[in-house]
Amino acid sequence: MELKGKTLSGLDVLLTQQLDSLKGLGVGIVTNHAAVTRDLDHITDALHAAGVRVVALFGPEHGVRGDAAEGAAVEDSVDPRIGVPVYSLYGATREPTQEMLEGIDVMLIDMQDVGARFYTFVYTMAAAMEACGKYGVKVWILDRPNPITGLGFEGPLLDPEYRSGIGKYRIPVRHGFTSGELAKLFNSKFGVECDLHVVKMQNWSRDMWFDETGLPWVLPSPNMPTLDTATAYTGTCFFEGTNVSEGRGLSRPFEIFGAPWIDAQVLRREMMKYDLPGVAFREAYFSPFEWKFRKEPCSGLQVYVTDRDIFKPVITGIAAVATIKRLWPNDFIFRPPSNTGKCFFDLLAGNSKVREMIDANVDPLEMEKTWQNEPVEFEAETKSVLLY
């Protein structure tokens, strides 16, 4: 394709074509370590060097510099390089307060999403948008590619009863949007009201995978090291809601899963029977150096995506969970409900029906039929927010 290898992110477009629009304004930035230019300069350094008056920084899960662990609360601080306050949006508060927004005329939001409904950065974006709308601060989204393409909605839509920090809006598990498009969707259909402007990418098309853009991959969170990880993550993240390791503590998280009591040979044989599109499985034997089963010998599978354009991560992940539950019912468990009364697996799935069907040993391919029309209807309803 003629476009491939020439994509400019919203940040690059801002720096090369729209910088004059920020002249004289107080600028806040919601961002993290993955917000870099094509030359790998971080957004804060690039804007500061360009003379933009940066007033404050706001960090999502893992912090502005990406040094906080998964799920760990992040504290407020001062940026040592440009000397401005750094406010955490993953600690005591999840959205900017009026005091934090003082002196800010425009809030820039630049975070690399991975295309999965349960990735938390998009909800940090939504919360910042809401706060800015409430206190009269303009919002600019600096758009970036959906790394697993802007095609292929998959999985059930979120049931509003299962809203949480890993899923707030009625979108599919694999959502198929860029962050800028999600911002438009939140603003127009889900009641997040702000003065919104999206700085669009240039030379990006919906069928492009991240490695076809020419942009540098910077791991957006500690357990998202590669595009291969992101490709599998939308399905294998379901293991976070179980007592099966999702591969954290390994060099290939979310591509490898297993547990001490799994027979890898049996599991591989059963998974291959589904004839799932674009994927094969290898027996995997491993000992995580942290997280579940730390230093314990485990066995399971490694996901090998053989054709990423037809691969269906959501049903692949759910089929793996269902198969392990069926084969080892006395060992497998879903994580118990939290103080909200909801199982974490249900929050990932966006409903309780998937877990209930797994418990009832419903064939995964039959499960898929219960939601397969939802993404189709959703796609028709949301065409108006597409930017590319």
Helical stretch tally: 11
Largest sheet: 7 strands, mixed
> What series of H and E elements makes up the topology?
HEHEEEEHEHEHEHEEHHHHH
Note the beta-strand portion. Answer: 5-15%
What's the alpha carbon Rg, rounded to whole Å? 21 Å
The count of β-strands is 10
**Distance linking N and C termini:** 15 Å
Assembly category: single chain
Fourth-tier CATH superfamily name of the largest domain: Uncharacterised protein PF07075, DUF1343
**CATH A-level architecture of the largest domain:** 3-Layer(aba) Sandwich
Content-based structural category: alpha/beta
Number of domains: 2
Overall geometric form: globular
Q: Helix amount, in percent?
A: 25-40%
Mean pLDDT figure: 94
Low-confidence stretches: none
Strand order in the sheet with the most strands: 3-4-2-1-5-6-7
Under CATH, the topology of the largest domain is which? Rossmann fold
CATH class categorisation of the largest domain: Alpha Beta
Can you characterise this structure?
The structure is a single chain. With 388 residues, the chain is of the alpha/beta class. It folds into two domains: 10-220, Rossmann fold; 227-375, Aspartate Aminotransferase, domain 1, CATH 3.90.1150.140. The protein is 27% helix and 14% strand. Strands 3-4-2-1-5-6-7 form a seven-stranded mixed beta sheet, sandwiched between helices. The protein has a three-stranded antiparallel beta sheet with strand order 8-10-9. Helix 5 packs across helix 7.
